[in-house]
Amino acid sequence: MTTTLGGEIGKLSKDEKEYSNTTAHDAAANGHVATDEYGNPLFHFDAAAERKLRLKIDLMIVPTVALLYLFCFIDRANIGNARLAGLEKDLKLQGYDYNAVLSVFYVSYIFFEIPCNILCKKIGPGWFIPATSLAFGICSFGTAFVNTYSQVCGVRFLLGIFEAGMLPGIAYYLSRWYRRSELAFRLSLYIVMAPLAGAFGGLLASGILTLSSVGSLTTWRMIFVIEGIITCGLALISFFTLTDRPETARWLSAEERELAIARVKSERVGTTEVLDKMDRKKLLAGIFNPVTLGTSMIFLLNNITVQGLAFFLPTIVRTIYPSATHTVVYQQLRTVPPYVVGAFFTVLFPFLSWRFDRRQIFFIASAPLIMVGYIMFLASKDLQVRYGATFLITAGAFAFGALCNAQVSANVLTDTARASAIGTNVMFGNIGGLISTWAFLPFDGPDYPIGNGLNLATSSMIFILSIVMLLWMKWDNSKRDKKDPEAELAGLDSKARTDLDWRHPSFRWRP
To answer: What is its main location (predicted)?
Structure first.
């Protein structure tokens, strides 16, 4: 039987007769599957109603999480701007102390990644995301008052704990609202805030540094106190603006809520509920999914570049435009254009991904841009050529945040598996971030051949691994095409079928 949601009720096919007395609302919300045993959706959706619903979700959900993530990334990376403004000198940091301060953040970030995403599912993202945003805003504010190496390490460790749940938490949150093909582009609309944070953070820092003082605080301390206050303000507002899930969205009509639930369920083979109960089998299914592990490795390699740029681009720019002839504010402003280019491609590639419902091919297309950029760094000592290379690197590197999280989300079935898969992906990514803090070492400057060589190697591995994964998914799908779902599912109850997740015989990898 074929039911049209968001529009008229259509005629029902023979294979779907068991659903002849099931209303659209029942199918969406009351424990019925939304696909047949072959993975085909049992409901067709009115395209106009979907477009209207999607736009409403876009306007109500995306702006809030995007602003929160913007200041999440600013609060993480503003230490690079503070370094230019005298943080190292005032705190008496020497040798590798700055690298160690960056590493402390990633230690807590990595350890708390998966637990935070599980906690996000347990208490609900509508409460978790604002609460953790408020906490890291307070940490950023507190950084303005540190006076020693140990104090700044302690505050950065706490910042890592509270920021650990943001990237995977928002990705998981949006997966409750959007179809597989739609998700990458919506993820890009908040992940684009990472390169924009580099641009806006540089502008904001340069503007703050033109002030003589904020209260009794001067120089780099003003950066942390002002940006921390802004973050806390946005977090408090988000407690009132973020809706936990479609069922609780007061700004949706009853019909729109049913449609929002049913269209997400229609892509999940054998799933009887969108928000399932958490259990160990589903958690492990998300973590040990082959596409999750492969994509997470790609994200790890990519984050060595992305996080390295966030922390060291101001330093790289300083070697190109030395302080002998350029002011600190001028140096800050020169970090902005590469991030603007990166932001454009962060949205472009996921937008194309949405239109084609493909992600892996954009992994393959992005990696060569990064490779060429680092080849330029290694092959030329011309400062303008090196500055130009940063534009290629940001163009290729920043889109992976949206694409990788969308890819792991698209290749699991249950909500619990999705939470653990996204958490695993981001955890791996932040291992890459930890590595990046040691990529550009003091003795390696000003040309940084070790750091640039490392990033050339990682981008080359991304290119190779992405091709291998695409070929493997196609090969495994062809094997699955030869299986008989009815025979393999015989004797299994609905819970056992749901627990199969990506092992379900009707499941197909989505490259």
So the answer is: membrane
CA gap 143, 78 in Å, rounded: 11
Place of tokens 């990506």: 502
Q: What does the alpha-carbon distance between residue 240 and residue 161 come to, in Å, rounded to a whole number?
A: 24
Alpha carbon 166 to its chain centroid, in Å, reads 8
Q: Cα torsion at 195, 200, 203, 208 (round to 10°)?
A: -130
> What does the pLDDT profile of the chain (511 residues) look like in tens digits?
445 555 433 333 434 433 333 444 444 444 455 555 555 555 677 888 889 999 999 999 999 999 999 888 888 878 878 887 888 889 998 888 988 898 898 889 888 988 998 899 888 999 999 999 999 999 999 999 999 999 999 999 999 999 998 988 898 899 889 888 888 899 888 888 877 776 777 778 778 888 877 777 778 898 899 989 999 999 999 998 898 888 888 888 888 888 888 888 777 665 556 666 777 888 888 899 999 999 999 999 999 998 777 666 777 777 777 765 667 677 767 778 888 898 899 999 999 998 998 999 999 999 999 999 999 989 988 888 888 898 999 999 989 988 999 999 889 888 888 888 998 998 999 899 888 878 878 788 777 889 889 999 999 999 999 999 999 999 999 998 888 877 877 777 777 777 777 888 888 898 9
Hey, what are 293's tokens?
A: 């592990």
Which domains are present in the chain? 1-45 (no CATH), 46-244+280-477 (1.20.1250.20)
DSSP 41: B
Backbone angles phi, psi at 313, to 5 degrees: -60, -40
Per the CB < 8 A criterion, the answer to whether 296 and 429 are in contact is yes
DSSP H helical ranges for 321-399: 328-334, 336-356, 360-379, 383-397
pTM, 2 dp: 0.77
Q: Which is nearest to 188 in space by CA: 167, 162, 165?
A: 167
- Residue 4's DSSP bridge partners are 44
Q: How far apart are CA 8 and CA 48, in angstroms?
A: 12
CA distance 142 to 106: 18
Partners of residue 214 on adjacent β-strands: 217
Q: How far is CA 46 from CA 43, 246, 256, 264, in A?
A: 10, 18, 12, 14
21: its two tokens: 């007395």
With tokens 């503070």, the residue in question is: 82
Q: How far apart are CA 299 and CA 89, in angstroms?
A: 34
Q: Is residue 138 a contact partner of residue 243, using CB atoms and an 8 Å limit?
A: no
